[in-house]
Amino acid sequence: MVNMMSSQTLAELLWVEKYRPKTLSEMVNQEDVVKRLQQFIKERNMPHLLFAGPPGTGKTTAAHALAHDLYGPDYRMYMLELNASDERGIDVIRGKVKEFSRSKLPSNISFKIVLLDEADNMTADAQQALRRLMEMYVDVTRFILIANYPSKIIEPIQSRCAVFRFTSLKKEDIVGRLRWICSNEGVKCDEEALEVIYDISEGDMRKAINILQASASLGVVTVSNVYKVVGLAHPREVKELLQLALDGKFMEARDRLRELMITYGLSGNDIVKQIHREIFSSELKLPEALRVEIADYLGEIQFRLIEGADEEIQLGTLLAKLVVLGKAARSMKQSVK
User: Fold this and answer.
1) Domain total of the chain
2) In which domain, by residue range, is 310 found?
3) From the CB of residue 85, how many other CB atoms can be counted at a distance below 10 Å?
4) DSSP of 68-87, one letter per residue?
5) DSSP string of 113-154?
6) Which of 124, 145, 165 is the last residue of a domain?
7) Furthest C-alpha separation in the chain
8) Within a domain: residue 78?
9) H or E stretch including 160?
10) CA nearest 157: which of 146, 173, 166, 168?
11) Quick one: residue 144, left, alpha or beta (phi over 0 = left, psi -120 to 50 = alpha)?
12) Are residues 76 and 134 in the same domain?
């Protein structure tokens, strides 16, 4: 059936052995990173590594591909992988990592690899213990630390690592991968919907595939279904809401706001973020000064919401402010004429 998932969900496709890039040469959009890592493979040696960058950009995949290119298909025998967000205490560092570092070496490479995913979530004590292990077992073990926020890694560890910075994936890479997955899974999709998924994922491949899977569960992957599964209003509807308020139609704008919140299950903060995104859209013809005033006030409203203010009152205040700003903008335009 076209709209049914196989035994493997779409979200898993990128990570299972059949579909995930097995070698560094298969990776895209990280050319500088791949080139440097391939030099380590050529030399059969490498320092401790720190992979830093946004989520879903291939950091963990790059570590697996590097190990595969070094050790071959059985690379998992010589790599210990830990998710530091779950196993991040000092006992793990002193136990699992220490024991693995002491174990037998592969025959053709002089070291093994310890992969610490989400290393920026490790406790300070664990990082200090890790720092010592990196010194003690450097002859037989290399560490690859993966972090979304490298600033949370203590300086002594950062100074012991070669840092690799990953960038968000390009639009053509993400859309091309999604199109390929749809083709392999027999899922019908609109090209525009794939581009919307890219915009929402903001360069995060993992997030893009999760959105694709959820959208496919509703049938054909369309723009409407994409916005429905991610819990966002369609940009067109947000623009209509903005235009109503700026045109001075307060009650109509208020009714439209309630409709959007009920239909899509949006919170006040969601509405503020979407309005903020749309005021900078080229499709919305607004003077720059008006965009600046709206953006400034949106920041104030968001702060109030985060502090616990009532959503209905704050969003009503926001609409009232938009009405006032729209009236002022029209008056200024007429006076100029």
Assistant:
1) 3
2) 235-326
3) 12
4) HHHH-TTGGGGEEEEETTTS
5) EEEEETGGGS-HHHHHHHHHHHHHTTTTEEEEEEES-GGGS-
6) 165
7) 83
8) yes
9) none
10) 146
11) beta
12) yes
Same domain, yes or no, for 125 and 178? no
- Closest alpha carbon to 245 in 304, 315, 146, 174: 315
What length is written for the chain? Answer: 337
Does the pTM of the predicted model rise above 0.70? yes
Using CA atoms of 262, 265, 268, 269 in order, give the dihedral in degrees to the nearest 10.
-160
Triad 259, 261, 265: Cα angle to 5°: 125
**Are 204 and 86 contained in the same domain?**
no
Same domain, 82 and 197: no
pLDDT tens, the chain, 337 aa long:
334 444 455 555 443 345 567 788 878 788 889 899 999 999 989 999 999 998 888 898 899 999 999 988 888 888 888 876 555 566 666 677 777 877 777 768 889 999 988 888 888 888 888 888 888 888 888 999 999 988 899 999 999 999 999 988 888 888 988 898 888 888 888 999 999 999 888 888 888 888 888 888 888 899 888 988 888 888 888 889 998 999 999 999 999 999 888 877 888 888 998 898 888 876 777 888 888 999 999 999 999 999 999 998 999 999 999 999 888 877 776 665 5
Three-point CA angle 4, 199, 306, nearest 5° = 105
Helix axes 31-43, 59-71, angle to 10 degrees: 20
Q: Which two tokens stand for residue 149?
A: 């926020």
Whether 201 and 241 share a structural domain: no
CA 113 to chain centre: 26
Tokens read off for 267: 């919170």
User: DSSP assignment, residue 96?
Assistant: I
